[in-house]
Specification:
Radius of gyration: 19 Å
CATH architecture of the largest domain: Alpha-Beta Complex
Distance between the termini: 28 Å
Number of strands: 10
Helix content: 40-55%
CATH superfamily of the largest domain: 2-enoyl-CoA Hydratase, Chain A, domain 1
Number of helices: 11
Strand content: 15-25%
Number of domains: 2
CATH class of the largest domain: Alpha Beta
Shape: globular
Structural class: alpha/beta
Length: 261
């Protein structure tokens, strides 16, 4: 069911899997200020729901995942004297510290803020027809969120994509540089994304979240500090029912039944 208000964003949960759908296909799922706020709220809702273990993010239709900030909407705001949102005025998903896994199902264009949204996800699965790019330099717009891109794809690839804003890359090129995890035909996109999500439900949820946090935070630690942090964080697995269930299921040659307890 959609989040309260206009159905510009759909939030559905089934069997511990949340699907978040940007629902402005007539605007190529471009991010109006209202939609950006709703995206933030939906991620916060996912983070705070103990019964939600994995999320899939996509766009409505078969043309666009998200084409970034809605410049038509912004031009109207400029005429009304509202101006461009300043840093700090818009909620930042990265501040939410979500350690549950998030999958992007990129069904078409992922441009500028659309790239940003996919970049925030942990796994990116793209349709063969998808095209991606960061177009901010074309329109003289900010892209502070690109800070971590070099960590994902290397400095050379990041500079190519960010500085040459008119240049889009194909889904296959995204796969070649390590930003896309899978490329599939458009008609198989959601089934592929959901198969990844369903696989996640069979894994130890606390272990998954710990390891995601360890990997992301590990970038900012020296090796010895990183190991100390990882060891301290992993101590939260001790005494859990799930930590006893894993080895027990292995010994009994069955699939474990995890409860996040």
């Amino acid at each position: 069911m959609p989040i309260t208000g206009p159905d510009i964003l759909l939030y559905e949960k089934k069997d511990r899997i949340v699907q978040i759908t940007l629902n402005r296909p007539e605007r190529m799922n471009a991010l109006s200020v209202e939609l950006m706020e709703r995206v933030y709220d939906s991620f916060q809702r996912f983070r705070d729901d103990d019964d939600a273990w994995v999320a899939v993010v996509t766009g409505a239709g078969d043309k666009a995942f998200c084409t970034g900030f809605d410049l038509v909407d912004q031009s109207k705001r400029d005429k009304e004297g509202v101006g461009f949102p300043k840093p700090g005025q818009m909620p930042q998903i990265s501040e939410l510290e979500i350690w549950k896994p998030i999958i992007a199902a990129i069904n078409g264009y992922a441009i500028a803020g659309g790239w940003m949204l996919a970049q925030f996800c942990d796994i990116r699965i793209a349709a063969e027809n998808a095209e991606m790019g960061i177009a901010e330099t074309r329109w003289n717009l900010p892209a502070a969120w690109a800070t971590n891109l070099a960590r994902q794809i290397g400095l050379g690839h990041a500079l190519e994509i960010v500085l040459w804003g008119d240049q889009r890359i194909t889904a296959q090129r995204g796969y070649e540089i390590g930003w896309i995890n899978r490329v599939v035909p458009q008609e198989r996109l959601m089934s592929e994304a959901m198969s990844w999500a369903e696989r996640m439900l069979s894994l130890g949820p606390r272990s998954v979240r710990d390891l995601k946090e360890i990997l992301y935070r590990g970038f900012s630690f020296a090796p010895r500090e990183g190991l100390a942090f990882a060891s301290a964080l992993s101590a939260n697995l001790l005494g859990m029912e799930d930590t006893a269930e894993g080895p027990k299921a292995f010994a009994e040659k069955r699939k474990p039944v995890f409860k996040n307890r």
